[in-house]
TrEMBL record:
Segments traversing the membrane: 26-43, 63-83, 95-117, 123-144, 156-177, 183-202, 231-256, 268-287, 299-321, 327-349, 361-380, 386-408
Cellular component GO terms held in the UniProt record: plasma membrane
Membrane topology annotation: Multi-pass membrane protein
Family to which the UniProt record says this protein belongs: Belongs to the major facilitator superfamily. Bcr/CmlA family.
Pfam families to which the protein is assigned, alphabetical: MFS_1 (PF07690)
UniProt name for this protein: Putative MFS transporter
InterPro entries named in the record: Efflux_drug-R_Bcr/CmlA, MFS, MFS_dom, MFS_trans_sf, Sugar_transporter_CS
UniProt main location, coarse: membrane
UniProt-recorded Gene Ontology molecular function terms: xenobiotic transmembrane transporter activity
Length: 426
């Protein structure tokens, strides 16, 4: 029978995560990593099939990109709903129900007769994947805080980085022996595996005494309180705008490299993997950086560097200097800087509102995927080319940098906020 025991908070200075046996802690973190991968897998696995879907369903590239936008909107909206729900009734039930919804939507995508139906089902897929994303982040905040949380977010970002490497590769392999519909068969199988692992391994981490039962009015009050925190709002905007740069790459890269440079689906998967390598390396190197610098310092520096690389990308894309290498190298460097932003901005934001971790994580995720949802079709509107992708990537990094230094003002944040040191296994 699946474990349903609740992890209760300790009476001393140790976090609940520190009290877990090392083996059990490893299993929980591993499953949390799987859950954070569900969203990226849902988004990225069918990227190599976008041109195929365009021709098969006899539509336009911009219209097909709206199915990606639908997924992102579902992820954003779902987090707004699931986050407060998980604060009210606990983490396990919303998580398992959400993954089940994702499975059902994936099955229906296999038989979708037209683009409108596929788009609607992709929204439903996003709603289901949202539960996995927001509950995983809330569980991290239930178990750890401060620097330990930032380190664990870096480890989870490893999975988020690996997923984009594997997802297009798996999608390309599936397309080599079946149609784009086979991608959703694979997503169904993955969803079932994640549902089983979550039900067996994950305990309830929010005890009844810490649950918030204010109903709709209480949820509105919680969101209202979050919006009054200028630093928190600034941090989630930074995370969202950095995500916009990432999703500009995600939505535009298949057209840029397959249509613009004539790459096959398998070649595109390898190019896409190269960008994810930079993302992965940065998130893991962040753990080492945290031993010497604060999350605030890393966040500010990575945004400035990412802005510079984004400007180089835009200039080279507009002039054509450097050819393919002139696009790939600065693009991969921007993604590397995004890899440093991704763990530190959420860790700083959630550390401010541990009393409502689910709601705070929900708003963070909703902003991330909501801004990403706006960035994805914007690339198509601007022309589905290297310049269009570069404009949105640079714009996202520019806006994130401005918000960071004007609204968040990381140099003024108390050092203690990001340096609460608790033991955590590496």
């Amino acid at each position: 029978m699946a474990e349903t025991r609740t992890i209760t908070p300790p009476d001393d200075d140790l976090t609940p995560g520190e009290l877990l046996p090392l083996g059990r802690r490893f299993r929980i973190v591993l499953v949390l990593g799987f859950l954070t991968a569900l969203g990226p897998l849902t988004i990225d696995m069918y990227l190599p099939s976008l041109p195929t879907i365009t021709s098969d369903l006899q539509t336009t590239a911009a219209a097909v990109q709206l199915t990606l936008t639908g997924t992102l909107l579902g992820l954003g909206l779902g987090q707004l709903l699931v986050g407060p729900l998980s604060d009210a009734i606990g983490r396990r039930r919303p998580l398992l129900a959400g993954v089940a919804v994702h499975i059902v939507a994936s099955v229906l995508c296999v038989v979708a007769p037209n683009l409108a139906t596929l788009g609607a089902l992709r929204v439903l897929q996003g709603l289901g994947a949202a539960a996995a994303s927001v509950v995983a982040m809330a569980i991290v905040r239930d178990l750890f805080d401060g620097l330990a949380a930032a380190r664990l977010f870096s480890r989870l970002m490893l999975v988020v980085g690996v997923a984009p490497i594997l997802a297009p590769t798996i999608g390309g392999l599936v397309l080599s022996w079946t149609s784009w519909r086979g991608v959703f068969v694979v997503l169904t199988v993955i969803g079932v595996a994640f549902l089983i692992a979550s039900s067996v391994v994950l305990p309830e981490t929010l005890p009844p005494a810490r649950r918030r039962s204010g109903g709709v009015a209480g949820t509105v009050r919680d969101y209202g309180r979050l919006f009054t925190d200028r630093v928190y709002v600034g941090l989630i905007l930074v995370a969202g705008l950095a995500m916009a740069a990432l999703f500009a790459y995600v939505s535009g890269s298949s057209y840029v490299f397959q249509d613009g440079y004539g790459m096959s689906e398998q070649q595109f998967a390898l190019i896409f993997a190269g960008g994810a390598v930079g993302l992965i390396g940065a998130t893991q190197f962040n753990v080492r950086l945290l031993r010497r610098w604060t999350p605030q310092q890393i966040l500010a520096t990575s945004l400035l560097a990412g802005l510079g690389f984004g400007l180089v990308l835009l200039v080279l894309a507009a002039t054509g200097i450097g050819g393919l290498a002139g696009i790939l190298i600065p693009l991969w460097l921007v993604l590397t800087m995004v890899g440093l932003v991704m763990p530190n901005a959420p860790a700083l934001a959630l550390n401010r509102h541990g009393e409502a971790a689910g709601t705070a994580a929900a708003l963070l995720g909703a902003v991330q995927f909501g801004v990403g949802a706006l960035a994805a079709p914007l690339v198509g509107v601007l022309g589905v080319g290297a310049v269009a992708m570069a404009v949105v990537v640079f714009g996202g990094m520019l806006a994130a940098t401005v918000v960071c230094f004007v609204v968040v003002r990381p140099h003024r944040l108390p050092v203690e906020q990001g340096r609460t040191i608790v033991a955590v296994a590496h």
